[in-house]
Design goal:
497 residues; alpha+beta; Immunoglobulin-like; Neutral Protease, domain 2; eleven-stranded mixed β-sheet; 13 helices; 25% helix; binds zinc ion; metalloprotease; metal-binding
């Protein structure tokens, strides 16, 4: 549920100079990318971050953000130099207390050379003092920062961090976060996790948020503006904090009627996916003109437009499903996006069934039948769609169809055991599509290579019999559109490219 503003198509060719293993000899520069073939310059090599401490001040009238990031990391090789991903202007960098030299390169690289080389396996503290106007910065010709009439919002996938904090920007390097943001009194600063404290002094209010479980950098979010906060507790005891821009206008009621059901939906999802993995929960709806939603950890971002036609709990189901499928277990590489989107979409199908608006099988049948064999829909391979198709509708709908094909193949008992067991098996880590296939084979005791190949990796419409013996083969004509179809389709934003 998200889209890139512009897909940087030429990126693949941009940097081939990836990690050269450090020899036993002299320390060498860390790689400018973590090694993801979809986005070669994203993330960095040579270290692993454990914690980000962000102490910031934001001025809504000028969109100026400034402050200090303190990053705790550990080196994974001998380093003469290392990179962070960042776009704002840097004033000073210190590494283990000593001033370091720095420069910028590429689209979003901050190259840092410490006074002394860093030995492999040692803890490193990096302090970056910075400032800038996020809305004035672009990389690859786009921005992940959304300026609003009363502030700004960082929420985008895969790239959002560059506009507000320096990071190792790839899901492979998760960390805990303390986000402390000072804003003018009467303005709210929303981020992930729990609100530890809030205090006002001399016209400024400081908001202190904490995420005490590992979080991918793209799942960290910041929204500043005039918000109305609501609080509650789920039946299972998780504290809920939601935030709504005070300027949602006619969308206000529908937004609240959807996002206020966050606790109910999270409890319902835990029946399928296991206990909710975090100690905080919620959602926020800023006054952006965007159209998508994003599974920012513990507190998803929802665009007002998601509620333009009335309430839509289905989008809440989607983003909260990601808290297990995407956030708790994150992609190993961005090619593994099916693990996120196929399952979040399938959760919407399960919700439809729960609401009596069409069963998952009816939605699968309709999806299958509504795309003829020559529809380009089938040329997208959800198991490895390529960066240009990472958020194509097929990753969602064909992806959910693949999930349903697995269900039909292994039966409900094994299928729901897989659905619940997977988040626990890779909790707080990363996993690939291949890891998922192996896990499903382990639980079901069945070989699934052919099934996964057919549904996720072939650039063509699977034969109905291979699909499922039962209902698909019988459905020669397009089945009736399930009642939930349009609500679910209203959560698509992928057509906007
Ligand atoms: Zn999604």
């Amino acid at each position: 549920m998200h889209r890139r503003i512009i897909v940087p198509g030429a990126l693949g060719a941009a940097s081939v100079l990836l990690a050269i293993p450090a020899s036993a000899a002299a320390p060498s520069p860390g790689a400018p990318g973590i090694g993801d073939p979809y986005y070669p310059a994203y993330g960095n090599g040579g270290y692993d971050v454990s914690h980000y401490d962000l102490r910031l001040t934001y001025r809504p009238d000028s969109d100026r953000l400034e402050g200090t990031a303190t990053i705790l990391a550990r080196t994974t090789e001998d380093l003469s130099r290392f990179n962070l991903d960042f776009l704002l202007d840097v004033g000073e960098v210190r590494v283990n207390g000593a001033k370091a030299s720095f420069t910028t390169s590429g689209e979003h690289e901050l190259e840092i050379t410490p006074k002394r080389p860093l030995a492999k396996g040692t803890p490193v503290t990096v302090v970056v003092r910075y400032g800038g106007v996020p809305s004035s910065k672009e990389a690859y010709g786009f921005t992940g920062w959304h300026r609003t009439p009363d502030g700004g919002v960082a929420a985008n996938e895969p790239e959002a961090a560059w506009w507000w904090f320096p990071s190792n920007d790839h899901p492979l390097d998760k960390a805990t976060f303390d986000v402390s943001v000072q804003v003018p009194d009467g303005t709210q600063a929303i981020s992930n996790g729990t609100l530890r404290s809030k205090s006002s002094r001399l016209g400024w209010t400081r908001w202190n948020w904490r995420s005490d479980k590992p979080q991918a950098t793209y799942l960290a979010t910041l929204a500043v503006g005039r918000f109305d906060l609501t609080t509650g507790t789920t039946e299972s005891g998780i504290p809920v904090v939601n935030a709504y821009s005070v300027d949602l206008g006619a969308n206000d009621g529908a937004a609240r009627a959807s996002v206020e059901r966050t606790g109910e939906v999270a409890d319902w999802l835990s029946g399928y996916f296991g206990p909710y993995p975090y100690n905080a929960l919620g959602g926020y709806v800023p006054n952006t003109d965007t159209g998508y939603a994003l599974e920012t950890q513990t507190r998803p971002f929802y665009s007002p437009r998601q509620f333009a036609n009335g309430s839509n709990v289905s989008v809440v189901v989607h983003e909260l499903a990601h808290q297990w499928y995407g956030d708790l277990v994150s992609v190993r590489g961005w090619k593994d996006i099916w693990i996120n989107e196929g399952f979040a979409r399938y959760a919407q199908w399960l919700w439809s069934e729960h609401e009596g608006e069409g069963t998952a099988r009816e939605l699968a049948d309709y999806t299958y039948a509504s795309h003829p064999a020559d529809d380009p829909f089938w040329t997208v391979r959800p198991g490895d769609p390529g960066p240009e198709n990472q958020f194509d509708i097929a990753v969602y709908d064909r992806g959910a169809l693949a999930v349903h094909a697995l269900r039909e193949a292994v039966g409900d008992e094994d299928f729901f055991a897989i659905l619940k067991g997977w988040p626990a098996k890779y909790a707080h880590g990363n996993a690939s599509v291949a890891d998922f296939r192996r896990y499903a084979e382990e639980v079901s005791g069945e070989p699934l290579s052919a099934l996964f190949d057919t549904w996720l990796f072939q650039p063509s419409k699977p034969e109905a019999p291979a699909a499922r013996a039962a209902s698909l083969a019988k459905a020669a004509d397009t089945p009736a559109q399930p009642r939930s179809w349009r609500k679910i389709a209203a959560t698509n934003d992928v057509h906007a490219h």
